[in-house]
Amino acid sequence: MDHAGTQHGNGTGFAHPVREAAIEAQGLGKRYRRGWALRDVSFRLPAGRVCGLVGPNGAGKSTLMGLATHMIRPTTGALRVFGAAPGSTDAVLRTSFLTQEKPLFRRFTVAETLRLGREFNPRWDQEVAEGIVRAGQVPMHAKVGTLSGGQRTRVAFALAFGKRPDLLILDEPMADLDPLVRRELMTTLTAEAAQHGTTVLVSSHMLAELEYICDYLLVIANGGLRLAGEVDELRAAHALLDVPGTGPSPALPPHRVIESRRGEGRPGVLVRLDGPMGYGGPAAEPPTLEELLLGYLRAPDAPPLIAPSARVGDIHDIITGDRKAVTA
Ligand SMILES: Nc1ncnc2c1ncn2[C@@H]1O[C@H](COP(=O)(O)OP(=O)(O)OP(=O)(O)O)[C@@H](O)[C@H]1O
What we know:
With 328 residues, the chain is α/β, with parallel strands linked by helices. The chain has 10 helices and 16 strands.
């Protein structure tokens, strides 16, 4: 497993993530009284990626994010954020978490809210935070309680970015934004992430939008990980075959049929490739990210595919990695 790549000396006193894992989970599980919300989840999210977290309602996305931010404790397994336990000072200082609820003090003005951000965060970047607020013409002297839902979202984004996190976790944060503002904030998100090497984990049901921003992917269904890896790696492992997709799923050995596509979009059969397509077979094209995601959302029992970039070793490797990070 690759634990290399942590570089120091970015002027902040913090390790600058280059190739290390931003998040690493091994055998991670969370059980509530009603049953398992997340079970035996193992993956590695390399630093610097913008990762989409996708799954049907109730799949376990918020639970995974809660585990990564120490809001929820695991029942089994472990998770590390840049090699540190969630909840440790290092992990907390390096992580921003934005949920749909966006708890802000309603009686504070926008300026006071940003001031609070500055006081609590040693890496605070006032220019970035103010820039995000001003781009939406949100008055700095307005009380948060008087803002529209979308304007409050913008202020919450400003707080999250102003913290200058190494890991930004966004739990469906843009649901209440109009399409133009969504696009604008997403452009800000990708530009900021690219400029500062920020790792982003963003959950969303907007598949087309994820295609626009993500280069990494985690798909969860029924509490289990179904897909993990680079978008390019995952797309290359599948093909959309030009065969009629209206009848029962055809057998296409050795490839595994994920879905016979019907209705909207390109028709055909989505397969997970097991070896090259033979000559004389049906025409094959890589699926788009949206086609891939829809296929797995419609086939939640498909066996998991964890691409090489997302694989972890055993729990011992994670703990050894922690020790190396501490002694480095
Ligand atoms: N505090 C809790 N107590 C009991 N069960 C819970 C609790 N929180 C979540 N669950 C259950 O765990 C499962 C996963 O929930 P989670 O919120 O992680 O799903 P999600 O993928 O984020 O869903 P959505 O897309 O609807 O936001 C669900 O079945 C949910 O009912």
